[in-house]
Amino acid sequence: MKSAGSTFKLGRLALVLLALAVIYYVLFQYPQPGIADQGDFDRVMNVSGLRLPLDNINDSNFVRFLDYPVTDYQIYNLNTGSIITRLTATSMTFLITLISLICQMAGQTIFKTGYLALAYAIIYVSALYLIMKYMNIKSGIKLAIFGLITLLVCLDGNYLVWFNSLYGEPMMITALTLYMAAWAGYLHHRYVMRVEAGVFPRIVFIIAAAYLLLGSKMQVLSALPILLIMVGKLLWDNRQLLKPYQKWLAGILYCVLIIYPLGLGLTDQDTNNRQYNSVFYGILKDSPHPAQDLSDLGLNPDMAVEAGKHSFQDKADYVKYVPNTQITQQEFYSQMSNLKLIQFYITHPARLLQGMEYTAGQAFATTTFLGKYSREYSETPVREFNRFTWWSSFREQYLPKHLWFIGLTYLVITSVSLLVYFRNREFPGIKSRIGLLWGIMAIGLLQFPMPYVGNGQADTSKQLFLFNFIFDLLLTVSVCWGLSKLIDVVSYYVARSRTSKTTSRLTLSPKTNYGLRKIQ
After folding, report:
1. Which residues, 6+ apart, have CB-to-CB distance to 133 below 8 Å?
2. φ, ψ (nearest 5 deg) of residue 467
């Protein structure tokens, strides 16, 4: 047993080393890639104490947006008060502030996104390691196969390249992976090891990971109900194991889990742009009756003149209702709400289905047109990226970008998992793992309609980043589960064949028969 355990530890260590090698190749080998800013970085910089260096501001030839990644930022406003207020901002600020403090202690005033990429990589690989460890795989062949498949998918270059940026996408997937690792650790402790003591720190770990996930980007707010259900059930199931002060503390953390993302939503400065896009570039775009749609939304039908336009066009492109102007504020923003959007699609299901077909057509793409390499490396913006992108290239080229395929995949996984759940109703560990799978599936499912409903056809592919990641995880789990069953069947018949041959030799051997005759 000790030898087998050491073999599995070495196997997991080999996978970690392979993962680090892939990350080094993708992110840190010259020329170091990144993602150019398309206007999203200010949201993070403003709350993280970062700004452009004066050399860039004073350089008339400096290109900030779209073409080249900007990796160096000036650290400022790093004091106790600002650090405390950052706890209420996007969860990216936690990592950025920690890195900034380390830079300050080292006498450095420049924050490099490469430092952030390294932090993401450490968290990501650690979480993947914990998941592999707590899956309780007892076959060396399965460990090797499952590990290689996981690394091929999860370390795809079109996921990793976002690490070297100030976008919220890498925080989403690293926090989600950490959340799954926290749950895997808890389920192993509670149902495999069957230990009741020490459950509270594991609960705190799960809540902390959920906190990081909810604060990564506003779009993850749709996951709040699922996370509240999962954590609420977790607290209820362990109510007899927690001490009184632990119950109070867990209750406070649960309340913070509710308040934190809702607070981010109330202070979100990009709501106006998203609502403008969701109506004019979503509902009204390609609509046969835009004026009637506006009436159904309780808005002025006169605004139909802006149908098909989004909030990032030049002012000259608009007829009358320019985004963020006084007339648009009076006629649109003050009259619009997310609830009206939801009500519209509930009462117009055919329009929702049409929008979901469009969304499906934008799925499975984690590539981006934004520049990937610095201007020093290439004066011509390089928009292609092909380091360890085998999986994403295959997915984007061959997976059917249709609503029926996405629905069928969810239906098959749900049906099989339900069958496994009811066949193992007496095993709480198996049921809890399937419950975790359902929770992740639900988060992904809610992410799918969010880009179109909440932002129209603006930047849909990028807004599906978390959905694509979860869909990849579901495919990975499905393939690994199927291979596991196949390996079990093959192993059974191989063992049965060997047993049959051994029995046959014993039966047919003359010496054996002679011995039997003597005994008789």
Report:
1. 12
2. -60, -45
Query: CA nearest 250: which of 211, 203, 294, 291?
Result: 203
Model confidence band, residue 137 (pLDDT cutoffs 50, 70, 90): confident
Ramachandran category for residue 428: left, alpha or beta (phi over 0 → left; psi -120 to 50 → alpha)? alpha
Q: E strand or H helix at 266, and its extent? A: helix 244-266
In the beta sheet, which residues pair with residue 112?
Answer: 72
Q: Which helix (H) or strand (E) holds 83?
A: helix 80-85
Confirm if 220 and 169 have CB atoms less than 8 A apart. no
Q: Is the Cβ–Cβ distance between 374 and 69 less than 8 Å?
A: yes
Mean pLDDT to the nearest integer, 12-32: 95
Q: Phi, psi (5° rounding) for residue 248?
A: -65, -45
User: 206-209: long-range contacts (C-beta < 8 A, 24 or more apart)?
Assistant: 206/179, 206/182, 206/231, 206/234, 207/231, 207/250, 207/253, 207/254, 207/257, 208/182, 209/175, 209/178, 209/179, 209/181, 209/182
- Residue 515 or 135, more confident: 135
C-alpha pair distances (Å), 240 with each of 138, 247, 520: 32, 10, 64
Residue 128 pLDDT exceeds 90? yes
Taking CA atoms, 469 is separated from 11, 38, 355, 370, 400, in Å, by 25, 21, 21, 20, 16
**What tens digit of pLDDT does each residue of 428-437 get?**
999 999 999 9
Residue 68 has φ and ψ, to the nearest 5°, of -130, 140
Dist CA 103 CA 41 (whole Å): 20
pLDDT in tens, 413-472: 999 999 999 999 899 999 999 999 999 999 999 999 989 988 888 888 889 999 999 999
Q: Is the dihedral of CA 358, 363, 369, 370 positive or negative?
A: positive
Rounded CA separation 240/235 (Å): 9
Instruction: Return the amino acid letter for 194.
Output: R
CA distance 462 to 482: 31
Over residues 341-394, the pLDDT tens digits come to 889 999 999 999 999 999 999 999 999 999 999 999 999 999 999 999 999 999
**Distance between CA atoms of residues 150 and 479, nearest Å:** 10
pLDDT tens, residue by residue, 75-113 = 987 776 677 777 778 899 999 999 999 998 998 999 999
3-state secondary structure at position 73: strand
pTM for the predicted model, two decimal places? 0.92
CA distance 340 to 99: 42
In order of 75, 167, 184, 441, the CA distances from 101 in angstroms are: 9, 21, 32, 37
pLDDT for position 517: 39
The β-bridge partners of 72 are 112
**What does 459-518 look like in DSSP terms, one character per residue?**
THHHHTHHHHHHHHHHHHHHHHHHHHHHHHHHHHHHHHHHHHHHHHHHHH-HHHHHHHHH
Q: What is the pLDDT of residue 271?
A: 78
Q: Which of 255, 245, 233 is nearest to 200 (CA)?
A: 245
